[in-house]
Protein 1
Amino acid sequence: MTIIIIITFNGEKWIKACINSLLNESNSNIYVIDCDSSDETVNILESFGKSISAYYSPTNLGFGKANNVGLRYAIENDYKYVFLVNQDTICEQGITTKLLRAHQDFPEYGILSPMHFYDVETLDSRFESYLKKSSTKTFTLLLQNRKVIPVDFVNAAFWFIPIEVIERVGGFDPLFDHYGEDIEYANRVLGIHKKIGIFLNSKVYHLRNQSSPIKQNIITWKKTHYDKNLILILNPQKGNIYNLYKLHISNIRSILSSLMRLNIKRTIGIIIAYLKTVGKLPVILKHRRLYTINKSRNSSFDRENVLFLQS
């Protein structure tokens, strides 16, 4: 059985179409975690009755911690696969069956994702950028008619994950509020020598704005660079000393680069993020120890593991 996990927050614009596209998936159940929506999202969810299951959080947990509620539910209820789906999406019929068969054919993949489109003919812009950035020469593989192509990363708008992988790497790290947690999680999956792949014979639609420039200020620069620092330190594929060295070098370079360009807001944001990271190093390194599979940690899942704590 597959559990489809959807996180909602003020998603009245999309959530009905999203759920309707998934209601008839065979051997699948839908579990929604709502993060204290203030619009009509809750009423829409309740209108589905027993067709779905839902958890209504009294606070906005953020993407990672909300998904951890669903991952814990999946493990406690003996699901074999998890399909993470964003609220602003529509899936083609039979998507979970296709992804299940793909994993059975290619068990070396710890995360599988379908092709992300914006409309019938246009790839989602950020999804397309992940393909182009991949070191696996994605487009060469496309020309070879591969069914699944390996990539370095794909965002968690659509992730199909076997429970056995979740039992090894745990949940999303609650150090992250929103954004960056999927990159860190993907690093852990790669760290247990599982691949991340795109299943080509599948199609989903991500209806987000394709050109959404963010007005950068000190707060946004601080968050962006703090998340980058977390991802760098927590990367299990590199050692502690190397990661800490890279932390200091990359921040110093970024600060000097911003100063040379006279970008004062970015400079201040990076400095604040750097100081925050250094101040939280004991906590961050503790999370790194807990999340990294090594000889001192049993690779089997512990239901009371702190990886699933909400804060």
Protein 2
Amino acid sequence: MKKIFLLAMVLGTVAISTALFAQVSGQDIVIQSVNGIVSYEVSAGKWEALSADKKIAPSTMINTGLNSSLILKIGDRVVTVKAMQKGTVEKLTSPAQGLSGIKLGAAVTDSTVNANSVQGRTNISTASTRASDAVEDVQWVEEKKE
């Protein structure tokens, strides 16, 4: 009896995994348009530029640069991947991607720092100090306006 149950579990697992794989791999993902610098990972560490009308797999890693966007056609849906995104096509086009990290009903807590103890320079990093370190890592794309 235990062998029959084990065999049924294994066959059920194989059937379910085959159905899920067929659903994901059955989707045709076609690049409709590319704006700016958009690349995909060909092999480990090797990136190439994406072009329109190219078919890609859901597990393909893509990277959109600054001021760039990518429009994909997945089956009957059209999905836009915005600038500065990196990840698999499946992850970047999932419906949960558009949700923000702020939850409704979140509470603000008071600071534990005594206002009299701050002397002029703090160890707080501002956006301008972080941006000055990242200038070399960003590829800028200038748009021509007519």
